[in-house]
Amino acid sequence: MSLDLPFLDAATTELFASRIERGLAPGSVVALFDGSGELHFSRGFGLDRVDEGGTTPDADTAFRIASCTKSFTAAATLLLRDRGALVLDQPITDFVPEFHFSDGSPEVPTLRQLLSMSGGLSTDDPWADRQEPLTDDEFRAVLRAGTPRDSTPGTTFRYSNLGYALLGQAIAAASGTSYIEFVTRELLEPLGLTATGFRAEGRPGRTAVGHRRDASGTWRALPFSGPGAFSPIGGIVTTARDLARWAAFLAGGLTDSPQAGPLSPASRRELQQVHRTIPSDRVGVEENGYGFGLMVEKGRSIGHTVGHSGGYPGFSAHLRWNVQAGFGVVGFENATYAGVSTPVTALVDRVIEHLGAGAQDAKPWAETVTLARAADRLIDAWAADASTELSTGASSDGLESEILSPNVALDVPIAERRAAVRGLGLVAAGEEPRLEASASPAVATWLRESTSGPVRVRISLAPIVPARIQTLTICPEKSAE
């Protein structure tokens, strides 16, 4: 990744410094990391606390990351799934028997549905953000009173913190230890995330203080809530440096060289795929939805972008990474629901554009290129008289059997294909085909000239060795009008 520091300095000043000046938060920190999790750039603005002793936060200042914690909860669930301790399609009542819908509905959400925010529960941010210190017994008492059903489980996206608190209970039951102990022992410690934990006190380095702004415009410091049954929804306290390492570990699952770690690359990929779609009007987003503990956006201009926001009393957080460009951004602010996702998203979009790193087309396999060239020669043979031999001396019949899978002739007889090609008035190819970009390495398209205009050719390869063409289409190019 090659980014000039003046570009980043100017962009972060514009996007973040102005927010402090406008009074959206007392302080903030932003950090850009590469695919290894190392920080490429970081800056702090404002103050980590407004009382005496406040200083400008940096990449080693800890903040509450709120719902960014959910990626840790989802990862812990999949880790237990991979070990055979639970199954994602188990009902939550296998682990939390107290849960039931208050309307008497017999169907309850599965772990998979809770992970993807489609468990039939309603959105609950303001209420849930104040429930963290509940003990397990207190939480179970709430559940025994019943839970309202918003929708049929598995049908509708609703952002539910309660669902992730339930997952925390399932993690504890399946692992035989507490949620916090399991995440700490199995994820934080193996990855060396020494600045990450579930308590603000007793940790190394400085910790930012959260604030809210009162009616007079004065910043009021807020106390940290203690860990408890709702910690799985947003309880982690960490630094930009540590969170960047976590994000890079997850993002590495989508690369050909994933980092080693406690969660398999396959499970990391599973976290970062859309499991429940969400409508989006953001420019450039063609696919949008919730994975497991992560939001996912895909589009030609933005590629595959993954992240999550966090809002808690006193804090706002956002992490986001782009798979194609191999970078990500972490942003923190120390004000209630300040919305730091806005400048972080804008910065990621700018960097993607700066690098020209939107969705990347696949590089065709060598076999795809070879078969495309052979198909182009076959088309020339079909366009000519049936008795004409190719320049190589091989008949078209010989080339057909060499490069075409048997299904091609079964789908449309070769005689019909020959006749159709002869009717196009193709001009003999004077050079090898210029293959166009494709989303799959097994697909190739190119244009041929004819007496009546361009003709598009497309091949796709069958999933066999040696490679053979399974589809071959040759038709006039449609007008753009």
From TrEMBL:
Question: From which residue to which does the signal peptide run?
Answer: none
Which protein is depicted?
A: Beta-lactamase-related domain-containing protein
Question: Which InterPro entries has this protein been placed in?
Answer: AmpC-like, Beta-lactam-related, Beta-lactam/transpept-like
> Which residue range or ranges hold the Beta-lactamase-related domain?
17-341
